[in-house]
Amino acid sequence: MSQPLRNRSGQPSSAVPSPWPPHPSRRARDFFKIAAVFAGAFAAWSMWSSFVPRAIPAMLRAREPVVVVHTAAGDLRLHVAADPQQRHAGLMNDTPKPGTGELFVWRGEGLRHFWMANTPSPLDMVFIDGDGIVSRVLAGVAPCVALPCPIYSHRARYVVELPAFTASTYGLRPGTQLRGFAGLR
């Protein structure tokens, strides 16, 4: 003789398994369980990814060549970001010290776009053409605190990021001629 069917609590049940699909509410419950697993995985990944990039810009900057640019008010020590990975990292999660900054270099002039995501402090952006002449200065650009971040664009071959409000201290304004960029690629 076959064993009687039992329900979840182990009591004998006279119910016969249904050939019909489960009730829609059961499907919805299963869907939400799966969605919760994916949401948890996404939350874990996003928390992990927000911590990991903090070390990457400093590691990249340690490998970057440094160029010294002479200005009327003193010398600027600039880390050169010439490849896409270095340009992408820029000064994210880093605050430049006085007299230092980041020099972004491209092979030719073009429209350059910058934003301040993951940047802890305000910066000056100095756009420079292929002849080393400053074409635009954005002073004290504030960090992005919420998406979407504003985009700052201008035509340039070189862009220098400095601590906020130091471009004017070094005499960097539209029309200023800078030397020392000729061999950079």
Tell me about this structure.
The protein is an alpha+beta fold. The protein has two domains: 20-54; 55-163, Jelly Rolls, CATH 2.60.120. It contains three helices and eight strands; from the N terminus they run E-E-H-H-E-E-H-E-E-E-E. The strands form two sheets. A six-stranded mixed beta sheet has the order 3-4-5-8-6-7. It has a two-stranded antiparallel ribbon with strand order 1-2. Strand 4, helix 3 (84-89) and strand 5 form a beta-alpha-beta unit. The chain starts with a strand and ends in a 22-residue tail after the last strand. The model is unreliable at 50-55 (pLDDT under 50).
* CATH superfamily descriptor of the largest domain: Protein of unknown function DUF192
Number of folding domains? 2
The CA-CA distance between the termini, in Å, is 86 Å
Q: What spatial order of strands do you see in the largest sheet?
A: 3-4-5-8-6-7
CATH topology of the largest domain, what is it called? Jelly Rolls
Summarize the biggest pleated sheet.
6 strands, mixed
The top level CATH class name of the largest domain: Mainly Beta
User: Total number of helical segments?
Assistant: 3
CATH architecture of the largest domain: Sandwich
Total number of beta strands: 8
Task: Summarize the amount of helix as a percent range.
Answer: 10-25%
Structural class: alpha+beta
**In what range is the share of β-strand residues?**
25-35%
Query: Based on CA inertia axes, which overall geometry fits?
Result: rod-shaped
Low-pLDDT residue spans: 50-55
The sequence of SSEs as H and E is EEHHEEHEEEE
Mean pLDDT rating: 79
| Backbone CA Rg | 29 Å
